[in-house]
C-alpha cells in the first residue's frame, strides 16, 4: 500500500512547484507516483458547482460556509475509491490540498481557530462519516500572505484560466486561513505534519528521504 502525502498552503504558496520537485525526487528513486489536486474542477460535479459559486453563481451559495464545505467534502468522498486504487498501485499518492484545506478555509471564514467548532465539524463529516483515506504526512508550505497574493496575481496575469476567485482575492481571509493552517500543523491535526518555508529553496532529497519515505 502506498503512502498518501498531502501538500497544503495558501493560494499562491507554490504547492504545484513543490509537488513537481517531490515527484522528480521520487522518480529518481524508482518510486511510482500518482498525483491529484482538490477541488477536482474538471472531474466532479460538486467541484464544478464550487467553481461556479466562487464566481457568483447559484445565488447565495458562495456565502454559505457550511454549504461550500459540504460540496468540497462530497468531491473528496466521490474520489475516495479512486484514491484507494491509486494507493494500492503506487508507492506515493501526492495530493495538492485535501481535508485540511476545508477545515482551514471554513474556520477562517467563520473567524474561528483550529480549536473551534468548524474544524471539529469537518473532521466529523470527512474523517468519521465519509472515511476519507488518512494521509501519512501533511506538508504545510508556509509563506507570508503578501507573497502568496503576489504569486497568485502573477499567475492570473500569465496563465490562461487561472483567474483568482472570491477566496483567493480576499486578503483578510487569506491571512486568517494562514493562521489556522499553522495551528493545524502545530497540533498534527489528523496525521503528522511538517512545515516548510515557501520563500526558501527546498532540499528535495532531504524532504523525500527524511519525511516522505521514512
UniProtKB/TrEMBL annotation:
InterPro entries named in the record: P-loop_NTPase, Thymidylate_kin-like_dom
Annotated source species: Saccharopolyspora montiporae
Keyword Nucleotide-binding: yes
Protein name: Thymidylate kinase
GO cellular component: cytosol
Molecular functions per Gene Ontology: ATP binding; dTMP kinase activity
Transmembrane segments: none
Signal sequence residues: none
UniProt keyword annotation of ATP-binding present: yes
Family: Belongs to the thymidylate kinase family.
Origin: domain of life: Bacteria
GO BP: dTDP biosynthetic process; dTTP biosynthetic process; dUDP biosynthetic process
Pfam families per the UniProt record, alphabetical: Thymidylate_kin
Annotated ranges, domain Thymidylate kinase-like: 7-190
Keywords: ATP-binding, Kinase, Nucleotide-binding, Transferase
